[in-house]
Amino acid sequence: MPRPSVEAERREQILSAACEVVSELGFKSLRIADVARRAGTSSGTVHYYFDTKTALMRAAFEWNFARSLDRRRDLLQEHADPRQRLRAFVDSYLPGDPETVRAWHVWAELWVEALHDRDLQELNEQVYGEWRRLMASIVRDGQDAGLFRDEDPVVVANALIGMIDGLALQVLLGSRSMTLERMRAVCEQVLSSLTVGSSA
Amino acid sequence: MPRPSVEAERREQILSAACEVVSELGFKSLRIADVARRAGTSSGTVHYYFDTKTALMRAAFEWNFARSLDRRRDLLQEHADPRQRLRAFVDSYLPGDPETVRAWHVWAELWVEALHDRDLQELNEQVYGEWRRLMASIVRDGQDAGLFRDEDPVVVANALIGMIDGLALQVLLGSRSMTLERMRAVCEQVLSSLTVGSSA
DNA sequence: TTGATAACTGACGGGTCCGTCAACCATCGG
DNA sequence: CCGATGGTTGACGGACCCGTCAGTTATCAA
């Protein structure tokens, strides 16, 4: 057995680079050579770890998802109050810091790519399912504590997630009528209308 | 002056074909030759009307938008009651019939393309502005009639549009947990929570 | 009929880029 | 020191496709 395996970290480097390039150039314009350069290696090495461009992108999408979850795992433990937990959770999805923006970009590329790719649709299904599960469970906690209105938590979660997706997209597009701050305001408004005894 | 101008209708044919191909294959995989074949003409003719692929796509996006507006223009006159008007408007965006689905596909491709293209961002800004203006004005009508809660109409419109965008995307992705019917249910729920005196 | 122009065609040049491959390097066990 | 194996490299073949262009057809005015 020669040379201690560097496979894990090299894969990581390449996937991270791939996400960066996708975020900057888009899937359509991504070249293997770009990813290689960004990862500080050669195109041959990229192909050594990922047979095809498709395989690379699929792995990059999965990696992007895994990291998104990781970044939020602790967050859910930090707040005992479901209202604050929900707020913090939603807040973590606002496309503010560069890392979150990058993740959103990759995410958006996945969506459009998945429109014509069954495998990626399956991946989206898992991701979306996980996200919805987390959101619905927070809502349920809040309702059990008598803090949120008594609507179907799954419906509420779907509505919130859909809204966040749609708004984030507009923010990412640099819309002047939907800036980060305005998105934050809309979310605040909607969240506070979820809590009991606040019809205005 | 030779041969009566066929420019207008030929452009229309090509743009329509372009939207169909984009919807089926995605922007990334769209070939000029595909559009030509779909339009029943040659690649040379496509280039006769549109200098570059980029110009073709930009025009196709604009055309898609114009048609979307046309399809809904009458709809807003049909219902005197703002509640029904809002419901019909939202309903017209549900990705049910093939034409609406196709329009959504094109729309989604525009989004992702626009992430890296200032010109397309500007186009998105116009479209989104128009949509938001329509939606907000319905909400305002409803509030004036004392039918809707007294929240900022623009915030409500943004929230609704964001939600519709996000949900439609999941439906288009063939999500098992976000089907057309479930999207319809979520929209119903949210819309009815807008009307006064309905906290459940 | 003839010339002019709009509309159209499809072959092809040229650029791009994926994936392959032959060669190379580094590190280990024996 | 040697062979084996994991890891790496970059050149290149070949496929793909945009945009050009020389040539063709259709329609009109004179």
From TrEMBL, chains A, B:
Domain HTH tetR-type span(s) in chain numbering: 8-68
Top-level taxon of origin: Bacteria
DNA-binding region per UniProt: 31-50
Keywords: DNA-binding, Repressor, Transcription, Transcription regulation
MF annotations from Gene Ontology: DNA-binding transcription factor activity; transcription cis-regulatory region binding
PANTHER family: HTH-TYPE TRANSCRIPTIONAL REGULATOR BETI, HTH-TYPE TRANSCRIPTIONAL REGULATOR RUTR
Name of the protein this chain belongs to: Transcriptional regulator, TetR family
Naturally occurring in which organism (per UniProt): Geodermatophilus dictyosporus
Phylogenetic lineage: Bacteria, Bacillati, Actinomycetota, Actinomycetes, Geodermatophilales
